[in-house]
Amino acid sequence: MKTTLPPHPLRSTADLDAVLAAIGDARIVLLGEASHGTHEYYTWRMALSKRLIQEKGFDFIAVEGDWPDCFEVNCAIKQDTVKYGSAAQLLQTFNRWPTWMWGNWEIASLVDWQHAHNRARPLAERIGFYGLDVYSLWESLQEILRYVQKQGDGAVAAAQRAFRCFEPYGDDPQEYAQAVAFVSDDCQDEVTHMLQSLRRQLRNTTIPAGLERETAFAAEQNALVTVNAERYYRAMIKGGPASWNVRDGHMMETLSRLLDLHGPHSKAIVWEHNTHIGDARYTDMARDNTINIGQLARQMYGRDKVFAVGFGSYQGSVIAGKKWGAPFEEIVMPKATRGSWEDVLHQQLQGENALLLSSELKGTAAMRQTFGHRAIGVVYRPEFEQFSNYVPSLMAERYDAFLFLDQTQALHPLPTKVAEHTPPDMYPWTE
Q: Which of 43, 151, 378, 398 is the most buried (most CB within 10 A)?
């Protein structure tokens, strides 16, 4: 890379002025992370999100989390009074491994800020917090049953049939997936019919604005989760990119639905791993037709309306598990591999933090050369890092901006008791 790399110093929230100007009138801002367990990724995303909400009128934050858990947080932070005890108590809802992703003190700080911010706004203008992910098949089924039984509408029978179809597998979607992977006897028809019945009922119901409208939206969203989760778990057993594509397709569909819910002028902030928000077409993901939300958002809304910010660091510590489902621990993250994107930035910036804008990288190697770009997931074995944790990327095309944090430290998890079942291990790069 040429030594004329034009970085912006990154020392305080005032230094985010450059990226705010570059975001302009984008409708969707995608904020990444190179791991699910780094303190600085969460705090800098929060600092940027606050400014987007306060200065550019963004309407909600959508995260790589499950819909039912995040919707519980969403409803709590929109209430006038604190009814959940403390933010730490509220975040105990994230009790499925990896609990630390959203059950941490950094998110507790965000919850407190959002609630205080919302209290000063009319109900219709309060900032939301939503989950985009697809894992909550059983939890979403239970939420649907509670909703339709309370409403007493025509979707009750369809919801009960879907519930009974999954009942033999308990609350373990992986057991379901293994049982139906190679036979035709599955629950696809039941969940599809449930979604259709619920949508038909909602079309014929007058729903007032405000939280009641959100509650109805949440019921439909839970039904959509069950449809796509059923597809996801079946695809996962067969291998290949299909399950990843189902998952990111669902997250994009959910994001679009949320934008529609909030109106034609709504704006969204998305918090997800770099492997989701950085356009897959400019990585080796494209070789096996793997897509992600970064690619889909640009294709659906136009590149000028989507702004993706990647994050990365050179060395430090991180929260992760040594294997899938293992207790989290603080793990030392070694210096980035020689010649990687993070190593190049460390050398050229001499250990300083910086913000880089892709629009200013013309003429540099970042526009034409592929770099290995570190990606740490919820499972991390640093001794194997050079073989499995670098995604070849054309950086200036993959992202619109990049926040480089030379030295980082581990996230601060809450002491949440882990529920029995965890999603099965299927991630590329152990994301």
A: 398
- Which of 211, 42, 70, 41 has its CA nearest to residue 135? 70
Q: Are residues 253 and 312 in the same domain?
A: no
Say yes or no: 277 and 423 in one domain.
Answer: yes
Instruction: For residue 375, give the DSSP letter.
Output: -
- Strand, helix or coil for residue 298: helix
Q: How far is CA 182 from CA 179, 185, 273, in A?
A: 8, 9, 32
- One domain for residues 383 and 424: yes
Give the model's pLDDT for residue 208: 66
3-state secondary structure of 29: strand
**HSE of 320 in the Cβ direction (CA atoms, 13 Å)?**
23
**Among 198, 110, 87, which residue's Cα sits nearest to residue 153?**
198
CATH number at residue 334: 3.40.1660.10
Q: What's the structural domain count of the chain?
A: 2
Q: From CA 46, how far away is CA 64, in angstroms rounded?
A: 15
Domain hosting residue 250, numbered range: 137-262
Nearest-angstrom CA–CA distance, 74 and 40 = 23
Measured in degrees and rounded to the nearest 5, phi and psi for residue 226 equal: -65, -40
Look at the pTM and tell me if it is higher than 0.90: yes
Give the separation between CA 176 and CA 199, rounded to whole angstroms.
26
For 7, the 3-state DSSP assignment is coil
Name which of 363, 365, 375 is nearest 312 in CA terms.
Answer: 375
Inside any domain, residue 2: no
Q: Which stretch of DSSP H or E encloses residue 113?
A: helix 105-119
Tell me if residue 27 falls in helix, strand or coil: coil
Q: CB under 8 Å to 231, separation ≥6 — which residues? A: 188, 246
Do 47 and 188 have their domain in common?
Answer: no
Residue 20 covered by a domain: yes
| Residues in a beta bridge with 320 | 329
Rounded to whole angstroms, how far apart are CA atoms 221 and 68?
Answer: 9
Asked if 283 and 409 sit in the same domain, the reply is yes
Give 283-296 as a DSSP string.
Answer: BGGGGGT---HHHH
**Based on C-alpha coordinates, what's the Rg of the chain?**
21
Model pLDDT for residues 324-361, shown as the tens digit of each residue: 989 999 999 999 999 999 999 999 999 999 999 999 98
Domain-embedded: residue 132 = no
Alpha carbons 241 and 272: distance in angstroms, whole number: 19
pLDDT tens, position by position, 99-131: 999 999 999 999 999 999 999 999 989 999 999
